[in-house]
Amino acid sequence: MCFSPEASFTAAAVITTVGVVALKKAPSKAYQLFACIPLFFGVQQLMEGVVWLSLLYERFAYFKDFSTAGFIIFAWVVWPFWMPLTIGLIEEDPKRKKILKGLLYVGIGVTLALTYTLMFRNVQAEILDCSIIYNFDVADNIHATFGILYLIVTVAPTLISKVSKVWLLGVMNVLAYVGTKLFISDRILSIWCFFAAITSVIVLWVILERNKESNG
Fold first, then answer.
1. pLDDT at 175 (0 to 100)
2. What are phi and psi of 125, to 5 degrees?
3. Average pLDDT along the chain, 216 residues, taken 10 residues at a time
4. CA of 15: how far to CAs of 41, 82, 113, in Å?
């Protein structure tokens, strides 16, 4: 599959619109935070659209560092703690809330470690075979360890939750991750985030289901 700035900007527009609708439909403060998932993905895809432009056209090169950092901040800094946090807030089962709280602590640790990497390991973006690869100076074993932890804290909360339809968000992200890992693993950060952004429209479905249950 060939990606492009047009694909990123189109995804950003669609997902942000879904996020705005989800935010308006959210029945509580906890669900409003949950509704920010597609909004954040929309901004993330907007940032990657600018990364594309900065790599393709010399006149946009000035924005490369800013847009790369913007994309990585959402990918590395936000998602590891935001997913267990927001899903833990909307979860009602006490036992599952405790598990999600534990995952939140792990997620905060992952966020701090990846923030350090972003600040001190010189992350660089480049185009490779119609997609973007983000390179950073980290040993392979450390990279693999945090890759596993990242997957756990971003996907496991959706599979643990008993909130209606949240599990579907997790299943779709697992399928997207496995497909990307099998065929284009060197570009997994960019491509998996793209598909995760698309699947975040499920957040709106979760909120609509919650409203239906409340009104029913």
1. 81
2. -110, 145
3. 76 90 95 94 92 93 92 91 96 96 96 87 81 75 77 93 91 78 60 71 91 80
4. 7, 17, 28
Contact (Cβ atoms closer than 8 angstroms) between residue 84 and residue 145: no
The two structure tokens encoding residue 34: 């949950």
Task: Give the per-residue pLDDT at 1.
Answer: 41
The C-alpha atoms of residue 105 and residue 89 are separated, in whole angstroms, by 14
> What is the model's pLDDT at position 135?
81
Domains of the chain by residue range: 5-215
Amino acid at 47: M
**In the numeric block, which tokens belong to residue 86?**
């927001």
